[in-house]
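Final report, Chapter 2: Outcomes

The project's central promise was a pipeline that accepts a single protein chain and returns its three-dimensional structure in a standardized token representation, suitable for archiving and comparison. That pipeline is now operational. To close this chapter, we reproduce one record exactly as it appears in the project archive, with the input sequence first and the structure output second.
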Amino acid sequence: MRVPVSWLLEHLDAGEVGPRELADAFIRIGIEVDEVRSLDQVTGPLVIGRVAEIEELDGFKKPIRFCRVDVGEVAVPGEEPAEHEGPAGIRTRGIVCGATNFAEGDLVVVALPGTVLPGPFEIASRKTYGRISDGMICSARELGLGEDHSGILVLPPSTASPGECAHEVLGLNDTVLDLTPTPDRGYALSVRGLARELAAALDVPFGDPAVLDLPAAEGEAWPVEIADPSGCDRFVVRRITSLDAGAPTPWWMRRRLLLAGIRSISLAVDVTNYVMLELGQPLHAWDTASLQGGLVVRRAKPGEKLTTLDDVERTLDADDVVIADERGAVSLAGTMGGASTEISTESTDVLIEGAHWDPPSISRTARRHKLFSEAAKRFERFTDPQVCAAAVERAARLLRTYGDGSIQPGRTDVGTFEPPAPITMPISLPDRVAGIRYDRGVTVRRLNQVGCKVTVGAGDDGTAQVNATPPTWRGDLKQPADLVEEVLRLEGYDSIPSVLPTAPAGTGLTAAQRRRRTVSRALAEAGYVEVQPFPFVGESVWDAFGLAADDVRRKTVKVQNPLEADKDRLATTLLPGLLETLQRNASRGFKDLALFHIGQVVLPGASPVPMPELGVSGRPSDAELAQLEAAVPAQPQHVAVVLAGQRERAGWWGKGEQAGWADAVQAARLVGQAAGVELRVRNAELAPWHPGRCAELLVGDWPVGHAGELHPKVIEALGLPKRTVAMELDLDAIPLREDRPAPVISPYPPVLLDVALVVDAQVPAADLAAALVAGGGDLLEDTALFDVYTGDQVGAGKRSLAYKLRFRAADRTLTVDEATAARDAAVAEAGSRYGAELRA
């Protein structure tokens, strides 16, 4: 909501307080300030002018007018008469203007040459459309008064005289605050509510504009029946006759509407909008002559139609609350009036209506019909049912003052609203919640400032109790916690100490948490970048992955309210989100990528347990808690990496190296080392990996993940870079090791020997290495594959695998004979298992 500072201060005895102090006060009590906009951005000769003559210029694609404007300049005695000099020596200025919403005799705002408008935009005398334009006639937006740029700002006839300084007339010494109250504070969408908040924040007196001396009603103003009390609990009507609906809206009112972002339309509409901004009570003006019979508040009939003020015919829903006469619905209650009863400049007999509507009903109607009017915005956040009569009376008196209307004696006031229920709480509860001791009397004083009627007494246990009855405009105050929030908010959240509780001894990260951090750090140190991909997937991704129809990864949990309609499933693997992140980065020019993510996946069981419906009257039973736990699907923690482009960058040192399946396997080994286990690798086939370049990763004989190059069809379907590789491990499937041994550094030198073994081409290199380790015994410290050869020298269907063997004894210097014997035993074991022979 936008509100001028001058309007707020009109209801406060705040002394010398500036806009910045008011903004700080609002922020302190929890009302967001989006902007503090000063209006004094216009400098130079800005004056009031009267349009003396208008000449329409022809021959242009758009309407162009050449205007003679009286800006209060008169001829000096003794000077020759000017070319454009009227009676009594009044001189006029020629100004070219493209707007057509003003006529001869209208008062306008003129920026003379030398004026600088917001932008900045300097005005100068210049030739345009074949004429000399000696200034500019301004719109509200050009002056910084609002966003209305539909035409020139035309002032009411008696506002000022030509030549007067427009700075003072327009009130350009003011400041506008743009505020965003939280949705539960509907009362703050009014000057009344905001001024009361400031009064509490600044501890200054507040004058309530809703306090009016209401005359006694002498009968009904118009017959009204509330047939749906759940939708409306109060309906007030006042009648004004002999109204001059075409009378101009006074400038002071138009100015406030402009600054609040509301366009001036007509006197009756402007008055209802003004009272809505001032008191927070939306009003509706009816043309009495267009009504047939009394008004009935009811729910819409099935298929009933209504043409609203925006000239759209709407088919109503049975849940919509409407106001009807004998013909049918004539207004969409609390949202928008009907076109058939709209006020016009010819209307002389009007009804002013103020009602209190059910917030949920108005909210549903506004969203159903996409009518987010200013009235609906307030009604759905709760308005003050007590202010209806005062708001109607205020509007009626304004119409009487500025439209020469006659207020009829009768007032219709039907319906019964429930007053707020009293709330009882210990007087020390705010102190206990905040963790500090407030001064004596703070709780009572702050609740009084909110508008509560407060009494203090003793409870059953003898402690002091506060009994507070919330005001009618605070529908959000329902329990002690709400009152505590008000005390803490007005005292200032910054006064509450930020002290973390002391952690008890012996606590800290769990073993699983420490392992996660270690894995993350290890991958980051290896050059991988951690990302947080979108956690949900769509069904189509499994087709792109080439998963079989019965693949368990297709069995997912659906999200009830997804952020994206086409991604409404919880992921069973980290790869879809990670590959989408890689594709997005690659499409933006990043060619060499190494990304990783550690997160949970959701794996529903084969026969999911139904989720129990638990009440709130008491603690669930042990059986209910067990069923609740069983109904939650397994959510293990996985780690995944993806690579594309060059793993080793090209430079002066060389050509670089393309990332391949071996890099994905090495990433898995790196994770295993960080977790304190050694991963075993064997050949496998699993979508979405390439069947010939996919490795299964095992801890012992238990599979924990896969790594390798993605299938070309998957790469094409997902738009990934060529030869993209990926790895995914189930971290929770890797056993936690608390007894991680420290490495032992031997003081004795190693013996290094090489062996080249010829085996069948289908024998995995890792299995052959395992056989060497088993045969080499305790003296074989390490094996490393360094060469693979296939060709005529080893025969068809065979290949040569060359290993570096490192032998070392823990207690002595190893002799060559001992190392050779251990090597021979290792080769013998390889021969026994796989028929391996030493290559000649």
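Archive annotation: The two ends are 89 Å apart (CA to CA).
This record, like all others produced under the grant, will remain available to the consortium after the project formally closes.
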